[in-house]
Amino acid sequence: MTTSFISEHSAEFALVPYMKALLEKEFDCVAPMFPWLSREFGKMSKTVHNSDQFHILTLFPRRPKVSENGNIFITVNYELSQVKEIGEDKGVTVLAGCPLATNFWELASCKDFAWVDVNHPDIHEYLVPVKYLSHGARLMDSDIIELIKNSPLHSMKSFEEFIRSVRDALPSRFYGARYKPIYFLIKEH
Fold first, then answer.
1. 3-state secondary structure the chain
2. What are the phi and psi torsion angles at 72 (to 5°)?
3. Mean of the per-residue pLDDT values for the chain?
């Protein structure tokens, strides 16, 4: 049986610091966000950031699902694929990340992650064994840097349009969509 020992929110605590540090090796400023329309897109934020230009990385945290023999699996649900399609249309990089840990203690010092292209043809099963992901389905750190460098610049207006498009496309519950990504706003010079 394959099951998980953490939630996606717990996975975030390992993913975000690593991704921020990785991006800061190449870019001047990296701001992780969990935006609310009434806060990050409110009047004050729009005024302060009116002329800003930045790249956007949308990262879906995925929890490692561990088999009895210690293999790690990842799941990529349909909703993530929908966001990836919207991202491709809007020029926003979208991927999933999973810490490669099998218990709390490995998670605490995790430095190995599976960065996944959610719409890669190899991602077609519900449970995907990480060790069998091809290069392309599993992205290396350098692939992520290149994706960001080759992505268009955005403004607060285009960022808000992307967020609204995603919100409108996904099934919603009382607290919004079931899967909630972290957004990284990335500035060059």
1. CCEECCCHHHHHHHHHHHHHHHHHCCCCEEEEECCCCCCCCCHHHHHHCCCCCEEEEEEEECCCEECCCCCEEECCCHHHHHHHHHHHHHCCEEEEEEECCCCHHHHHCCCCEEEECCCCCCCCCCCEEHHHCCECCEECHHHHHHHHHCCCCECHHHHHHHHHHHHHHCCCECCECCCCCEEEEEECC
2. -105, 135
3. 91
- C-alpha 55/C-alpha 155 separation (Å) is 9
Long-range contacts of 151-154 (CB under 8 A, 24+ apart): 151/55, 151/56, 151/91, 151/92, 151/93, 152/55, 152/91, 153/53, 153/54, 153/55, 154/53, 154/54, 154/55, 154/56, 154/91, 154/92
Render pLDDT for 98-132 as a digit per residue (tens, 0 to 9).
999 999 999 999 999 999 999 988 887 788 899 98
Q: How far apart are the first and last CA of the chain?
A: 49
| Residues facing residue 93 across a β-bridge | 57
pTM of model > 0.90: yes
Give the tens place of pLDDT for each residue, 3-62: 999 999 999 999 999 999 999 999 999 999 998 877 888 888 888 988 999 999 999 999
Torsion over CA: 39, 180, 16, 50 (sign): negative
